[in-house]
Amino acid sequence: MLVFNSSNPSPLIFFLTGIPGLRAARVWISIPFCLLYVIALSGNSLILLVVFREQSLHEPMYYFLSMLSATDLSLSLCTLSTTLGVLWFDAQEINLNACISQMFFLHGFTFMESGVLLAMAFDRFVAICDPLRYTTILTNARIAQIGVIMLIRIVAVMLPVVLFVKRLSFCSSLVLSHSYCYHVDLIQLSCTDNRINSILGLFALFSTTGFDCPCILLSYILIIRSVLSIASSEERRKAFNTCVSHISAVAIFYIPLISLSLVHRYGRSAPPFVHTIMANVFLLIPPVLNPIIYSVKMKQIRKAIIRILFQKQCQI
């Protein structure tokens, strides 16, 4: 049995997988994937442009929205080259260093999105429960500090994961289950003890999304309690309406994540292409839907987008 590791003089090559069992139809399958990537990239870029250009949107809520769009944009770019490369050109080979780099950014931006959603929940909590201190609590400096803390957290949890993957040795089977490098997928190909890698992966998961999700839930429990104490039904409705977009963003991030975990755990009898399609959908749903939700639900964003697009048409 051949054993490979990162110290070998020849580069270690892994093989990405497209949609198992649907190889002949990969060109047709690539069309909806390409469309989803176009929507994700253009939608999030437009949100960033709008927040940057419109002075009226230079507020905490929109700064956090721009963080979410930047994260979604980065998450889409992480997998675009390998996913479309496999589907369009059958480019399945990827070396170990490129695979580890993609894994770092893929998981890092996923955890970043979870952190941004928590920051947005805090924003809504302060705006509804303590509106008089909203601008003094969420200053520009504090928003920047929140962003830096999220970046430090990603590096702190992902760096040990990456370093211990580099120490693994791999056997002759180097075929990955997805069209991108996924930590669990990668360490399962190892022919050495990977228990430390599994523990580090679980620690990274629970210290990010595992911490953020209960905090988001707690913030909404406090928000609901505060809103229900408002006497006017019209004011209660307005308060809840300001949270609809964020609740939708939380749902489209965590529901596919939980569904994918359940399918991996209990859906072993399902065809392999079901796992692969769900894994790709999980990565694409938030970047595709978040700009649409915020454009539809937030009047200021919608008006700003229409104004910018109208100005461009007039210039043409």
From TrEMBL:
GO MF terms held by the record: G protein-coupled receptor activity; olfactory receptor activity
Residue ranges spanning the membrane: these are 27-52, 64-88, 100-122, 143-165, 199-223, 244-267, 273-293
Q: Tell whether Flavoprotein is among the UniProt keywords.
A: no
Q: Which CDD domains match?
A: 7tmA_OR51-like
Q: Where in the cell is it found?
A: Cell membrane; Membrane
Please, which domain of life does this record's source organism belong to?
A: Eukaryota
GO biological process annotation, one example? cellular response to lipid
Instruction: Give any Gene Ontology cellular component.
Output: plasma membrane
User: InterPro entries, alphabetically?
Assistant: GPCR_Rhodpsn, GPCR_Rhodpsn_7TM, Olfact_rcpt, OR51/52/56-like
> Where does the protein principally reside?
membrane
- Record-annotated G-protein coupled receptors family 1 profile domain positions: 43-294
Protein family: Belongs to the G-protein coupled receptor 1 family.
Protein name (database record): Olfactory receptor
Organism, as annotated: Sciurus carolinensis
What taxonomic classification does the UniProt entry list for its organism?
Answer: Eukaryota, Metazoa, Chordata, Craniata, Vertebrata
